Amino acid sequence: MDELWYRGYRTRGTPTAIADKVVKEIKKRNLGQYAPRICTEPTKTKRPDELYFFIAINSEVIGQPPSEIIELEKWLRLQHINIFPASECIFQEDFKKHWLQRFREIAYTRQLAEWMPQAIETSIDYNPFDLSEEPVPDEKARQSYNHLLYWLSAHGNGSWQGYRSACKELKLEKANEPRFLFRRLRSLGHSEYIDEGHWTIAPSCLVKIESEDQDHKYFIAGGQSPNLINSFRNQEVTAQSNLGAPDSVFISFKSNLEVQTLLPEISRQLNTQLMLLGNMSKKIADLLPNIQGWQQSFLREISIFPELYKILKWTGKDFSKWVKSPDEFGMYKLTHHNVDGIPVDYYYFFDPGQGKWFQGDWYGLRYLANRHLERIPIFIHAYPENYFYIPIGDRIPDIYERSLILASGELPTIHKDGIIYKNVSLSLAELIAAKLGARIDRRNDVT
């Protein structure tokens, strides 16, 4: 099914006149299936000589308009109607309330039934992987974090807007809190982000925790409920509200036979399928590519107009190098002022060989940029505690971090100027470090 998203334009004129002109051209070209809606700003604005409006676009790939729309944009430019900065791909949930009152349907389709205007607060957190300014979690919200996981589990899947609404209802929504929280949920194996507008809960499962003592210890990942948790007798709960996540629930068994016997019984009682997984941390790490492969496989190409932004290049310490036109590998901060005059920052990676911009999680982009600057990170592995320490400035891409988190079933903690992951064996630490081009310092502790 095609996905509906929006593209913003700027011109001169009145909302009614411009809307009439654009709608007429869209109908003339018979593009209603590709551009079913137009949204203009209110008639009374502080800029009498400027007008901003958005065209809703249906396409197979979000952010990539069909060729018919690209041809339409050529006509728009001839009418002095141009795309304005940072509006190449946004969503209805990012509009302000007063914009939602000025929609004009061009062609009604079944898809539009799911996108009827709703009164929601403005936000720019449609990209859950831009984690440049993560706030401090609220450790007093333990019950709310648990209830959010139960809500996700009960619904199974849904829209990003619905997820944000649930966070707000549970008072977990701060400045961009939903996207930071969702990353933690993904890292713990509870949920996954399907595309630019939807999420899904992972199947309920028990994930094996690696142990030198051959303990039969697991943690619950994926869909959860109080009934599921209470079905296990030998359980141990670790609160993680201070880290901004639901409780981690650990289950201990006496033997493999007990595991194999109890799981089918609980599945029947709860009428759900409870899966038994092995050491997923090691399995994921084995499948992951090196950092060059991550760049090729996990970054998403994005279309932007760099001449519309103020551009600063990552130097290895900060964004202090101003560039007019990027010509080097690296991470860049692109800044523009929105229609209210407020500066908005975006972070992308530029590949001069391809002449293309790419989007990814913020820590991953920074790590990749540092590697292109020939910076070699030094990680620390402490034995026998099996703590794995990574400097904050070298925090790794989220998919590699997920492998480390699944080794313990707990989120990492901050220690001095670094991050500590628990229960990471030396072999796992060496594997992750080798794929990321890092060195390992072996010690008895991380101090």
What do these coordinates show?
- The chain is of the alpha+beta class and 447 residues long.
- It has 4 domains: 3-115, Alpha-Beta Plaits, CATH 3.30.70; 127-278, no CATH class; 279-299 and 360-447, no CATH class; 310-359, no CATH class.
- The chain is built from 12 helices and 24 strands.
- It has helices at residues 15-28, 67-78, 142-155, 160-169, 177-187, 226-230, 256-270, 280-287, 291-298, 362-372, 398-405, 426-435, and strands at 3-11, 37-40, 51-59, 82-83, 103-105, 157-159, 191-193, 198-201, 205-208, 216-221, 235-238, 248-253, 275-277, 300-302, 310-314, 319-323, 330-337, 343-351, 356-359, 378-382, 387-391, 413-415, 418-421, 439-443.
- A 6-stranded antiparallel beta sheet has the order 14-19-18-17-15-16.
- A hairpin with a 4-residue loop joins strand 7 and strand 8 (198-201).
- The longest helix is centred in the middle third of the chain and has 15 residues, at 256-270.
- The N and C termini lie far apart (53 Å).
Summarize the structure.
The chain contains twelve helices and 24 strands. By secondary structure, it is of the alpha+beta class.
* Spatial sequence of strands, sheet with the most strands: 14-19-18-17-15-16
Q: Please indicate the count of domains.
A: 4
Unreliable stretches covering 5 or more consecutive residues: 97-101, 107-133
The biggest sheet, with number of strands, parallel, antiparallel or mixed sense and barrel status, is: 6 strands, antiparallel
Q: How many H/I helical runs?
A: 12
What global shape is seen? globular
Oligomer: single chain
Radius of gyration: 24 Å
Q: Please report the total strand number as a whole number.
A: 24
Distance between the termini: 53 Å
Strand content: 25-35%
